[in-house]
Amino acid sequence: GNYVIDTTKPVIISAYVAEDHYSQQAIDEITKSLWHLNQIRPVGVPQIREISPEDWMEAWKAHYPIIHAGERLVIKPAWLAYSPQNNEIVIELDPGMAFGTGLHPTTRLCLDAIERYMHEESVCLDLGTGSGILAAAMAKLGAKQVLAVDIDPVAVSAAKSTVERNGISDKVQVLEGSIEKATAQYDFIAANIIASVIIELSPRFQEIMSDEGYLVVSGILEERYYEVALSLTANGLKPVDLIQESDWIAIILQK
Ligand code: SAM
């Protein structure tokens, strides 16, 4: 949703689909979402070429820039050099196959919310941590402790290496699993997961939030906003802010 494409010239869009996610249905969904979100219509049948995970990682590395998010955060790919300016906080990443490069609006909305709503010394939960990018932002912005969980073992190992790379292992614990691993009262929770999962988990958030705590839910397409907001408010949470980038919405809530 972020790129302006010169429609007077032919454009090739290549989409990488992990082998275990590949199916004709996945290809149809990508084609459909490109059309719905960006009015990009395929001209002919998509071409499919198999590439190894190693080639995939090298291919996208070539296009992964240094990203600025919120007021102070800088996401730096591990293989690029950067000298921080003034009060900037640098997170070094090599997400590999995990989601969470900082390139996607849903991640940037969370980074923005963390900067604005997370207080220093907060006890935090990063639900669906992916590369560990949000957990790293929480720790580097002064959280007391962070629990990062993900159901995907690939994400868990990427998040663990993000934690080591950024020297924050004294603050961040990474576990495979989901909300059942959350056993504390959290002052700040980030959940950048798709709408259906947020709806499914919505009865649980209130129980694990401290009285003044904040929850940010992201990964919500505009068309599913009301459904997600209704499910969270029906479960005792009240929205205090809403932030949006292109078609993606993040809601910030309290008890
Ligand atoms: N937090 C990163 C970010 O903001 O860029 C990654 C977000 S990515 C959109 C969503 C992550 O949630 C994926 O890594 C996925 O494996 C994980 N996930 C999906 N369903 C989950 C669930 N029920 N519990 C925990 N993690 C889940």
UniProtKB/TrEMBL annotation:
- Where along this sequence does the record place binding of S-adenosyl-L-methionine? 107, 128, 150, 192
GO-annotated biological processes: methylation
Q: Which top-level enzyme class is recorded in the Swiss-Prot or TrEMBL entry?
A: transferase
Q: Which UniProt keywords apply?
A: Cytoplasm, Methyltransferase, Ribonucleoprotein, Ribosomal protein, S-adenosyl-L-methionine, Transferase
The reply on keyword Mitochondrion is: no
State one molecular function term (GO): protein-lysine N-methyltransferase activity
Which family is this protein grouped under?
Answer: Belongs to the methyltransferase superfamily. PrmA family.
Name where it's found.
Cytoplasm
Query: What reaction does this catalyse?
Result: L-lysyl-[protein] + 3 S-adenosyl-L-methionine = N(6),N(6),N(6)-trimethyl-L-lysyl-[protein] + 3 S-adenosyl-L-homocysteine + 3 H(+)
Q: What is its EC number?
A: 2.1.1.-
Q: What is this protein called?
A: Ribosomal protein L11 methyltransferase
Q: Which GO terms describe its cellular component?
A: cytoplasm; ribosome
**General function of this protein:** Methylates ribosomal protein L11.
Q: Does the keyword S-adenosyl-L-methionine apply?
A: yes
